[in-house]
Design brief:
The complex is a heterodimer of chains A (286) and B (317). Chain A is mainly alpha-helical and 286 residues long. In chain A, 74% of the residues lie in helices and 0% in strands. Chain B has a two-stranded antiparallel sheet with strand order 1-2. The chains are: A mainly alpha (286), B mainly alpha (317). Chains A and B meet through helix 2, helix 5, helix 6, helix 7 and helix 8 of A and helix 2, helix 4, helix 5, helix 6 and helix 7 of B.
C-alpha cells in the first residue's frame, strides 16, 4: 500500500520526475554509504593493516595484506576475554534483575491496587524528570556506602530503578483484558501464578522491548562503570578500551574497538525489525 | 493514563448480595492483599529508594556540606557554591555545554530532519536505509568516540585526508581551541541521529496524504507544502524530539572525556565533565554536588516541559 507523501505519484511518473527521483535516490545511497558504512569498513579494515601502513599518508583504501594479528593481539594484550565476560555478566544480570523486579512492581501497580499506589507511581514517574547523569555523584556515594564498589551489583541494582521500562510494562499490563485474568483467579490461580502463566506469556512483545533496552543500556554505558569499577580486572569493555587506549598500538586498539562493537551490532542486525518498529512506535505513543 | 473501572473482586461478587462477609474476615483479607501487593513491589521500591530518590535528596544535602567519604560531614553553608562559582572552569563548562547543546540542536536536528523528509519520499530500499542510519547508534559510544579521535588525528586522520583529497585547507579539528567543540558536535550527531531519523520518519507517515493533495491543488510548491503541511502536522513530535535532544546533550560526557580530555584550553570541558573532575580528581564531593544541583535545576525545567507536553499529547490522542 502506498500512501501519498510530499511529492505526488503523478509527478514521479513523468520522465523528468523519474530522473530526479533516481538522482536523489543514488545521492542518498552514496551519502549513506560514505557517512555510515564507510567508517565501519575503515575501522574493520584498519585493524588488519600493518602498524606502519595504518599511519601512512595518504592512507591505503584496501590493506596491502590482510593480517589478523591486530585482532589476535587485541584479544590477548588487552585481555578482551576478561572484559567481554565482565560486560556480559553485568548486562545479563541487569537484564534479569530488571525483568524480575520491574515486572513484579509493574504488575503490582497495575493489578493489585496497593495502598498509596498512585503515590508510588508518581514517585517513580518523577524520576523521569531527573536526568540520570546529573545524579551520578550522590548515587556513587550511596553505592560506596553499601560496599558495592567493584561489584557487579553496582550495575544490577541501580538498573532496576528504571522508570521508563517500569512504566512501559505497567501500561502494557493495564491493557490486558480483565476477563482473562479474572478467569484465572476464579480457577484458583494465585497472584504469582497468574503473573507467571497468564500475564507474562501475553506480554512477550513488551518484554522483548524492555530486554533489548536493558541489554543495550548496560553495554553502551561508560560514565557509571568508569566510576564504580576502579579495579581493572572488573571493568567492562567500554571502560577498559578507554583506559588502555593511551599506551597501545593503533591497529590493536582499532581491532579491540571492532570486537567491542560486534555483540551490539549483531544483536541489532538479528532483531532489526523489532528494534526499528519499537523505536518508531515510541513516537506515536509518547 | 487509562483508569480501569473499579469493580469488586471476583470472590466478593460471587457471594449472594444479602450476606456480606464478617467485617473482621474482610479486614484480614484486605491486609493480606496489601501485604501481597507490597511483596511484589518491594524489590523495585528498594532500588528506587536507594538509587533514585535518596541520591536526589542527598545531592541537595551534600551541596551544603564538606563531605569526605569515611569521615563525618560538616555543614559549610553555601561555601561549595561560592567555590564552584569562582572556579574559572565553571564559566567555561557552562558556556561549552550550552554552545554544544545549541550546535547539536542546529546540526543534530536539522540534518536528521531533512534526511527523514527525503527518506520518506524514497520508494526503494526502505529497510536498508533504516538499518544503515541506525547502525552508529548501536556502536558503543566509547567506540564511536575513539573512532572519531582517530579520524581527527592531525597526522594519518581521515578527516584531513578527505580535505586534502578535495583540495581544501586542512583543519586542526579537536586540536584547535576554536574548532574542538564543533568537531565533537559532529561526532555526537553522527552517533545519535539514527533515533531521531526513525522517530521523525514514523511521524511523517502519519501525515494524511489528502492534505498534500489539497495543498497541491491550491498551487503550493514543494517548500510551501513542507512549511504549511508537514511541519504543522508533525509539530508535536518535532518539539518532543528537540526537548529530548536538549536534555541528552546537556549531559554530554563521553565525547569530551575520550576525545579531548576537556582541552585544548578548556574549550570542551562540559558541566558533567566538571562534576566528574570535582568528585574524582579533586575529591571535592561537596563541590560536585553543588554543580549537580545547578544542572538538575536547569534540566528539571526542560524535563517538566517535556513531560507536560507528552502528557497533553496523550490526552489529545
Amino acid at each position: 500500500m502506498s500512501t501519498r507523501t510530499l511529492v505526488s505519484p503523478a509527478v514521479l511518473a513523468r520522465p523528468r520526475g523519474r530522473a530526479v527521483y533516481w538522482t536523489v535516490f543514488t545521492g542518498v545511497v552514496v551519502l549513506f554509504a560514505l557517512a555510515f558504512l564507510f567508517p565501519v569498513y575503515w575501522m574493520a579494515s584498519g585493524a588488519m593493516k600493518s602498524p606502519d601502513e595504518v599511519a601512512r599518508t595518504p592512507p591505503t583504501l584496501v590493506p596491502e595484506s590482510w593480517s589478523t594479528s591486530g585482532y589476535t593481539d587485541a584479544w590477548e594484550l588487552m585481555r578482551l576475554p576478561v572484559h567481554l565476560w565482565n560486560t556480559v555478566v553485568q548486562a545479563a544480570g541487569a537484564w534479569l534483575f530488571q525483568l524480575v523486579f520491574c515486572t513484579a512492581a509493574a504488575y503490582a501497580l497495575s493489578r493489585l491496587r496497593p495502598a498509596f499506589g498512585t503515590l508510588v507511581l508518581g514517585g517513580i514517574l518523577a524520576t523521569l524528570m531527573v536526568p540520570a547523569q546529573a545524579l551520578v555523584v550522590p548515587k556513587y556515594l550511596t553505592v560506596a556506602d553499601l560496599g558495592l564498589l567493584n561489584d557487579p551489583l553496582a550495575i544490577w541494582l541501580p538498573a532496576v530503578a528504571n522508570a521508563f521500562n517500569l512504566y512501559l510494562l505497567k501500561r502494557f499490563f493495564d491493557q490486558l483484558p480483565r476477563d482473562v485474568l479474572e478467569a484465572a483467579e476464579m480457577d484458583g490461580a494465585g497472584k504469582l501464578r497468574t503473573l507467571w502463566s497468564i500475564v507474562l506469556p501475553m506480554s512477550r512483545p513488551v518484554l522483548g522491548v524492555v530486554s533489548i533496552f536493558a541489554l543495550v543500556a548496560v553495554w553502551q554505558d561508560f560514565l557509571w562503570p568508569l566510576m564504580v569499577f576502579s579495579d581493572t580486572g572488573r571493568q567492562p569493555i567500554s571502560v577498559a578500551l578507554v583506559q588502555l587506549s593511551q599506551n597501545i598500538q593503533l591497529t590493536v586498539l582499532i581491532a579491540a574497538m571492532v570486537i567491542a562493537s560486534i555483540p551490539m551490532v549483531a544483536l541489532f542486525l538479528v532483531f532489526q525489525r523489532h528494534i526499528i518498529a519499537g523505536i518508531s512506535a515510541g513516537s506515536t505513543k509518547g | 493514563m487509562t483508569k480501569t473501572a473499579e469493580r469488586p473482586p471476583a470472590a466478593v461478587r460471587a457471594r449472594p448480595a444479602g450476606a456480606p462477609p464478617p467485617a473482621a474476615d474482610r479486614r484480614r483479607r484486605r491486609l493480606t492483599d496489601q501485604l501481597r501487593a507490597y511483596a511484589f513491589l518491594l524489590g523495585g521500591l528498594v532500588c528506587f529508594a536507594l538509587f533514585s530518590w535518596y541520591p536526589a535528596i542527598r545531592a541537595v544535602v551534600i551541596a551544603f556540606q564538606k563531605y569526605t567519604p569515611g569521615s563525618d560531614p560538616e555543614w559549610v553553608g553555601t561555601a561549595n557554591f561560592t567555590r564552584v562559582l569562582n572556579d574559572p572552569e565553571f564559566g567555561a563548562a557552562w558556556r561549552n555545554t550550552l554552545t554544544f547543546t545549541l550546535l547539536a540542536l542546529l546540526l543534530g536536528f536539522a540534518v536528521p530532519f531533512v534526511l527523514a523528509l527525503v527518506l520518506n519520499e524514497l520508494r526503494h530500499a526502505k529497510a536498508f536505509f533504516r538499518v544503515v542510519v541506525y547502525l552508529p547508534v548501536m556502536i558503543p559510544p566509547v567506540v564511536s568516540a575513539l573512532l572519531w579521535k582517530w579520524f581527527y588525528d592531525p597526522g594519518a586522520g581521515l578527516a584531513n585526508e578527505a580535505l586534502r583529497f578535495l583540495h581544501l585547507p586542512t583543519s586542526n579539528w579537536t586540536n584547535g581551541a576554536d574548532t574542538a567543540l564543533i568537531s565533537l558536535v559532529v561526532v555526537a550527531t553522527w552517533a545519535n541521529m539514527g533515533g531521531t531519523v526513525l522517530i521523525y520518519l514514523a511521524a511523517l507517515q502519519s501525515v494524511p496524504g489528502e492534505l498534500y493533495e489539497a495543498a497541491e491543488l491550491d498551487g503550493a510548491s514543494l517548500l510551501q507544502r513542507i512549511r504549511h503541511v508537514t511541519v504543522p502536522q508533525t509539530r508535536f513530535v518535532i518539539l518532543m524530539l528537540m526537548l529530548l535532544q536538549i536534555i541528552a546533550t546537556m549531559q554530554v560526557f563521553t565525547e569530551p572525556f575520550v576525545i579531548t580530555g576537556g582541552g585544548p584550553e578548556n574549550s570542551t570541558v562540559t558541566v558533567l565533565y566538571l562534576i566528574y573532575k570535582y568528585a574524582f580528581l579533586y575529591n571535592d564531593f561537596g563541590g560536585a554536588c553543588a554543580l549537580s544541583v545547578m544542572l538538575l535545576a536547569l534540566l528539571g525545567v526542560f524535563s517538566a516541559v517535556y513531560l507536560r507536553l507528552t502528557r497533553s499529547g496523550e490526552e489529545a490522542a
